């Protein structure tokens, strides 16, 4: 483990130098009630006329989507069949439709899965010479993608500002990410009126996903910058303050808007500072058992934070104080209170403590995938080897 740890830290140190020369982009932000209606104008300004609207069946039936479609040129096309955990074959089907209709831009509307599908489509359009498998990992797209407008209808994934498109390999039931700054959308339209009808359980899970992004990016060993630190602190404070309200009073436009902005900031932060072992484990749970991503993160987060122990007390204590979860006591006490508060939020929102559906016979494979995803790239406070991942996954399963 000593050698592996040293290798990971050196890799991360060098990678961080490389990232300093990468051209990072942040989407133009449009915020506020009814900002959604500005989309035709945005497209016109960008000089594109034939957008493919990518969304799921639930949004496909809504009035606001029909209104948007009517406001766009007759060359627009809607694809409303994205399902959770979009697969490679589905993205190939979308790519065919995009070509058949001679589209020139993409409007992604929805939560994480819809955004992932649309961004993977964008990568495919930019690189017709490469399969999605070929673009797995870092910086493999490398070419301009079509003009891209992201309209989140959940507050959690931060996908409207990230470099990642997560896809599921149907053959292996395994998720992986395509990461490239070219996949950062041109515009993020954050209209809280689109999130008020979100069911409470999805509000809870996606909100905890945003919290996990902010916390993991904050704990980043080396990639964090002044800006990511500030974004994480603001996001954690807003989520601790407004997620319970968004969960309890879904129609609170203030809570919904605060959550959209927090989710955006957490997304922008982890795009630069990275996520960590929580996500590495949660992705294996999502791939194998189709547990929603945010729910898996919500369950794994306090278990991993507890497992990190004293390595994270200082940073968690600061988050606890800023978000007024715990303002007194030693660093260790405030950090433990912060973890306890996450568990309380989970319980209050009906999120279980464990995921007993995790089968013992799958744990070794899950640990291997998590190890491959996290190491050597993720700048985690404590580097896990395969055995350590297995132990933590067993705790997540409640075994
Ligand atoms: Fe996430």
From TrEMBL:
Taxonomy, superkingdom: Bacteria
A Pfam short name: ADH_Fe_C
UniProt key word Oxidoreductase: yes
Cross-referenced InterPro entries: ADH_Fe/GldA, ADH_Fe_C, ADH_Fe_CS, Alcohol_dehydrogenase_Fe
Gene3D superfamilies tied to this protein: 3.40.50.1970, Dehydroquinate synthase-like - alpha domain
Ranges where the Alcohol dehydrogenase iron-type/glycerol dehydrogenase GldA domain occurs: 32-192
Domain Fe-containing alcohol dehydrogenase-like C-terminal residues, every copy: 203-394
Keyword NAD among UniProt keywords: yes
Keyword tags: NAD, Oxidoreductase
Family: Belongs to the iron-containing alcohol dehydrogenase family.
Protein name, UniProt field: Iron-containing alcohol dehydrogenase
Organism: Roseburia lenta
């Amino acid at each position: 483990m000593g050698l592996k740890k040293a290798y990971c830290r050196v890799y991360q140190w060098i990678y961080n130098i490389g990232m300093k020369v990468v051209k990072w982009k942040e989407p133009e932000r449009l915020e506020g009630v009814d900002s959604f209606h500005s989309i035709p104008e945005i497209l016109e300004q960008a000089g594109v006329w034939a957008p493919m609207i990518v969304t799921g069946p639930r949004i496909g039936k809504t009035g606001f989507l029909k209104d948007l479609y009517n406001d766009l040129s007759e060359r627009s096309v809607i694809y409303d069949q994205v399902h959770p955990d979009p697969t490679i074959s589905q993205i190939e089907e979308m790519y065919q439709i995009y070509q058949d209709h001679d589209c020139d831009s993409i409007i992604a509307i929805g939560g994480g899965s819809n955004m992932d599908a649309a961004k993977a489509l964008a990568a495919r359009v930019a690189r017709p010479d490469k399969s999605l498998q070929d673009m797995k990992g870092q910086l493999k797209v490398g070419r301009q993608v079509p003009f891209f407008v992201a309209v989140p209808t959940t507050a959690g994934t931060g996908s409207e500002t990230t470099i990642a498109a997560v896809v599921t390999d149907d053959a292996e039931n395994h998720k992986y990410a395509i990461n490239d700054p070219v996949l950062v959308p041109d515009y993020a339209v954050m209209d809280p009126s689109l999130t008020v009808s979100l069911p409470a359980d999805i509000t809870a899970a996606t909100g905890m996903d945003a919290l996990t992004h902010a916390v993991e990016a904050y704990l980043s060993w080396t990639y964090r910058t002044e800006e990511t630190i500030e974004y994480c602190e603001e996001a954690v404070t807003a989520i601790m303050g407004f997620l319970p309200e968004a969960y309890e009073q879904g129609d609170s436009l203030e809570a919904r808007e605060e959550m959209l902005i927090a989710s955006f900031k957490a997304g922008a932060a982890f795009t630069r500072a990275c996520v960590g072992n929580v996500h590495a484990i949660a992705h294996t749970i999502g791939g194998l058992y189709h547990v929603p991503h945010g729910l898996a993160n919500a369950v794994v987060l306090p278990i991993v934070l507890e497992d990190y122990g004293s390595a994270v007390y200082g940073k968690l204590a600061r988050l606890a104080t800023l978000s007024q979860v715990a303002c007194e006591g030693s660093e260790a006490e405030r950090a433990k209170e912060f973890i306890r508060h996450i568990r309380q939020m989970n319980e209050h929102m009906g999120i279980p403590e464990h995921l007993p559906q995790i089968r013992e016979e799958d744990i070794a494979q899950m640990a291997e995938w998590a190890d491959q995803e996290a190491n050597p790239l993720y700048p985690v406070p404590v580097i896990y080897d395969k055995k350590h991942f297995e132990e933590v996954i067993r705790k997540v399963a409640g075994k």
